[in-house]
Write a structure and sequence with these properties.
two-stranded antiparallel ribbon, 41% helix, 2 domains, Helicase, Ruva Protein, domain 3, alpha/beta, single chain, Rossmann fold, 12 helices, 288 residues, binds S-adenosylmethionine, seven-stranded mixed sheet
Length: 288
């Protein structure tokens, strides 16, 4: 197996194929072999798993996943990488490469078609310019047992944040609605070529089989969350009145009281079950 993280191997390989990194495609390739190996080990991928990899690049994580998983499907946007991947991962017969934009794929259909009888997981060193849309698609697909990804460290902290902390955001609530996050380890910028300007971190999101709260209307719940954080320095009643104009200021205050909260409560301090209580009050009021 070619050690693609060794820059003395990687650089001539890229040069041989006239490959230049595309910033627009978020191409920062790993040059520290401990990183893809640790991601694969910590992801929990084994021979009972079918794993979707996003953005194999020249294949360092792909190799590590192919060594452990029953099947690997790797989705790559940049077809210039085809002859290089042929050399670096062509030896694996449990690998399929799909040349496409991951955001254009029907993920539940792909998982059903490719991973029958296997535990589906996703694993990737993500292209950072589309971290949120990819993570949203992976979680909303509701077909992966776990999603293990490398992202910017500040994004990882936001995903795992607790209510009331500076990092707690609408994206935190979105991710934790679908999954339980665990921060795994940091990856310094010098582990990549070219070096990104930020520190990275690996995070696992174990998706919830059952959601431990009762939410009567998901759309209302997420609208509430978005409107709460759109005005995070203000009282929740302001965000609520602007996100749900049909309630008006008085209605917003009534909803908050009916859900059992003080009038000056702030959205940034609310946990998911607390948001759920307020969302359910909004729905009740609509139905009354
Ligand atoms: N896995 C490799 C590694 O760790 O060295 C490369 C990771 S690099 C950060 C991100 C990869 O995602 C690149 O290979 C890039 O071409 C690919 N990519 C970017 N946008 C994509 C998209 N929309 N769909 C699929 N792959 C994409």
């Amino acid at each position: 197996m070619i050690n693609v993280c060794d820059i003395n191997i990687m650089k001539p390989l890229l040069a041989e194929h006239g490959f230049h990194f595309s910033k627009a495609k978020g191409q920062n390739f790993l040059i520290a072999p401990w990183v893809p190996e640790s991601i694969a080990v910590k992801s929990g991928v084994d021979e009972t798993v079918g794993v979707l990899e996003i953005g194999p690049g020249i294949g360092p994580l792909t190799q590590q996943l192919c060594l452990r998983a029953k099947k690997v499907c790797a989705v790559e946007l940049d077809e210039r990488l085809e002859p290089i991947l042929e050399k670096t991962v062509g030896e694996f017969d449990n690998l399929e490469i799909i040349w496409n934009d991951v955001l254009k794929l029907d993920l539940p259909a792909l998982v059903a078609g490719e991973f029958e009888g296997l535990r589906p997981m996703a694993c990737a060193n993500l292209p950072y310019y589309i971290t949120s849309p990819i993570l949203s698609a992976l979680l909303e697909a509701e077909c992966f047992e776990a999603v293990t990804v490398m992202v910017q460290k500040e994004v990882a902290q936001r995903i795992a944040a607790k209510p009331g902390s500076a990092d707690y955001s609408a994206f935190t609530v979105f991710c934790q609605y679908y999954a339980e996050p665990e921060l795994l380890f940091d990856v310094p910028a010098h582990c990549f070529l070219p070096q990104p300007k930020v520190t990275s971190a690996v995070i696992t999101l174990r998706t919830r089989k059952e959601k431990p709260w009762d939410i009567s209307d998901e759309k209302v719940f997420f609208r509430l969350v978005r409107s709460s954080f759109a005005m995070r320095r203000k009282k929740l009643s302001n965000g609520l009145a602007s996100g749900f104009p049909e309630l008006g200021k008085a209605g917003a205050a009534e909803v908050i009281a009916a859900a059992g909260f003080a009038p000056n409560i702030r959205g940034e301090n609310l946990s998911i079950p607390e948001f759920a209580r307020i969302a359910n009050e909004i729905v009740k009021r609509r139905e009354a």
